[in-house]
Amino acid sequence: MSLEHFLENAASSWMNEEGPDSDIVLSSRVRLARNFKDFSFSTLFSQEEALEIINVIKDRIKNAEIPEIGKLEFLQIENLQPLEKQVLVEKHLISPHLAEDSPYGACLVSENEEVSIMVNEEDHLRIQCLFSGLQLNEALLRANVIDDYIEANIDYAYDEERGYLTSCPTNVGTGLRASVMMHLPGLVLTNQMNHLVPAINQLGLVVRGIYGEGSEALGDIFQISNQITLGKSETDIVEDLTSVVQQVIAQERSAREALVQTSNIQLEDRVYRSFGILQHARIIETKEAARCLSDVRLGIDLGYIKDISKCILNELMILTQPGFLQKYAGGPLRPHDRDIRRAAFIRERFELEKKDNSEGGNTP
């Protein structure tokens, strides 16, 4: 399989787009937790109930033309190979919990992969919309369109005082989790993240790694999301998170400016060393690749590196994860072989970018 063909089929739309504030915000996500009325929650339901929920989804949602979205592809988790499930997790389309611990799970995914609906995860339904850049309001509007369509066809578990009922009490109310994925190398390099994270937590928000709870902040990428779902409207939750994110954006830009003013040559050297590693390394581990990709993305944003789109950095952050590497290779790889394949994949991707720029009349 050629790299061009692989990228056409592997890269989600948000990876190849530059949304608002995309120099710092990679993506915005809104997720709504919903449960069926008169069914036990997923943590307690029987096999019969789980299968009935799957059948309801197949009958009422699977082949539906949802406004603004179209049809969704239905995938039953038990029918997927381990590598296929891993790739869906790496693309943020399903959770590790659904991939590993949900024997009666399924998901529905839109063609452009901006929309995914997890079935029989921690809740019966988790509706997710993913957009590039800082577009939380747009993601909420899209999620509400899907939510309204489903609610017109399926009765939700809802209480007039408490709102939407969920398996975990922390999701009761709106059932909304809004999050942004941010690239914050300036705050990391100036040692401000250790002070910023507790301050954000005090505002009712949480800071996590690239794959959510329990994951590392690989490549200086952090997720910031709301914790409170009860007592606030969906609009208020999104507005509050957006306000905090905008403040973090301002601080990150200020930190980058300070680095340029006080440590410009050292920063430029760091960027180009990482760029050299990515273009020439023959073996590279996940963490080193993430660090180098972070440095190069910063170098592109600061204007050190020309004629390389930062969109390919969005791609490579995801496509150099173990699942994707093995998918591209056509089968399972040992860790050492993955490191070799990762280095080759990155070199090939940069060569492809140079070729595209050359054919487009740009200076390589």
Q: What would the average pLDDT be, to the nearest integer? A: 88
Sequence of secondary-structure elements: HEHEHHEEEHEEEHHEEHHHHH
CATH class of the largest domain: Alpha Beta
Number of strands: 10
Main structural class: alpha+beta
- Terminal CA distance: 25 Å
Strand order of the largest sheet: 2-3-4-5-1-8-10-9
Question: What overall form do the CA principal axes indicate?
Answer: globular
Which spans have pLDDT < 50 for at least 5 consecutive residues?
Answer: none
CATH superfamily of the largest domain: Glutamine synthetase/guanido kinase, catalytic domain
Count of DSSP H/I helices: 12
Q: What portion of residues belong to β-strands?
A: 5-15%
Compute the CA-based radius of gyration: 21 Å
The CATH topology of the largest domain is given as Creatine Kinase, Chain A, domain 2
What number of structural domains do the residues give? Answer: 2
Roughly how much helix do the residues carry, as a percent range?
A: 40-55%
